[in-house]
Amino acid sequence: MNKQKHKHYFALIALISILFFIVQFIITAISAVIIFSVNMQMITLDTNSQLNIGMVILNMFIISNFVGAVITFISSKISARPIQNVIDQIDRLASGDFSARLDFGWPLSKHPAFSQFSRSFNRMASELKNTEMLRGDFINNFSHEFKTPIVSIAGFAKLLRRGNLTEEQKEEYLTVIEEESLRLSDMATNVLNLTRVENQAILTDVEKFNLSEQIRSSILLLADKWEKKQLDFNVDFGEYRVSANEELLKQVWINLLDNAIKFSPTGGVIEVNIKNQSDSLSVHIINSGEEIPAASISRIFQKFYQADSSHSGEGNGIGLAIVKKVVELHNGTVSVQSENNLNMFTVTLPKSQPNTEEGS
């Protein structure tokens, strides 16, 4: 990739150099023709047939500067068009028009440097448009997810205030209020966690700990959720240690396991295993259930994105974005595969972190 960029860079320098050479050649040629014609006319008109060197030099100076100024103005005006085009499209983006696209036209669009520039600009505009759409979807989805538990809490609180309820009804209503309150708390926590990890550029508090034990502990923390859906866990891995931020990495397993539980059918199976490589560990979390649409796989780790926009399930498009950011902070990778009614999330982490001090 770097070689390709350098190739385009030198191609652009070569193009600019050629253009300057052509302009300079045109100026010199036109000036030479005009000066030669003027001087020949002066020789013809001179009765003594003697050339006035001073007048020749003055004519050369005046004509060369005049021709150079005219051609430079014309060539500058032509070369300024692509720059003005870029400015216009950037202004459109700045004003919120994400349909702006850059096209230099022929022949500049055929040059690799300008072609790469327009592709990069158009990709940026497209990503900004997608981000804006995701932001709008997030506002709608989050408003819905946030409003629903509040309405439930308010409704059941009113019923409790009216009284004349059996103990069973009171217990049922209080349970709903508790569950909806926890749901609100989870949403607020996820938003705060996403904000925190997005603003974190350096991994801190790195220490060596038992990764296997952390994953088992995360599974137990979610026991209420997977027991309610009568899910079976197939946990098959040995004991492995890793150098990482223990608190941040725990969010990865909580979010991935919660996601697997959420999208597994009642009575389904979730499998967790760890593969040991020479300098890294790969954790696979596999759940049975409906496959992730192919169009969603490339966007599933983007913040605010939800593959299911029908509000039929819980979620607000934040959990997997946190997973990706935390894994990247640990110099790792996260990916997803979906086929044969199985969804597999794979997190690969280095066993040790470069340029960090454990326990710092």
Broad structural category: alpha+beta
Element-by-element helix/strand order: HHHHEHHEEHEEHHEE
Question: What is the CATH T-level topology of the largest domain?
Answer: Heat Shock Protein 90
Which residues sit in consecutive blocks of at least 5 with pLDDT less than 50? none
Please give the CATH class of the largest domain: Alpha Beta
Round the mean pLDDT to the nearest integer and report it.
79
Could you give the topology of this structure?
Elements: H1 2-45, H2 53-94, H3 112-162, H4 167-198, E1 207-210, H5 211-221, H6 223-228, E2 232-236, E3 241-244, H7 246-262, E4 269-276, E5 280-288, H8 294-297, H9 319-329, E6 333-339, E7 342-350
Parallel strand pairs: 2-4
Antiparallel strand pairs: 1-3, 4-5, 5-7, 6-7
Keywords:
360 residues; Helix Hairpins; 3 domains; 61% helix; elongated
Would you summarize the structure shown here?
The protein has 360 residues and is of the alpha+beta class. 61% of the residues lie in helices and 13% in strands. The chain has helices spanning 2-45, 53-94, 112-162, 167-198, 211-221, 223-228, 246-262, 294-297, 319-329, and strands at 207-210, 232-236, 241-244, 269-276, 280-288, 333-339, 342-350.
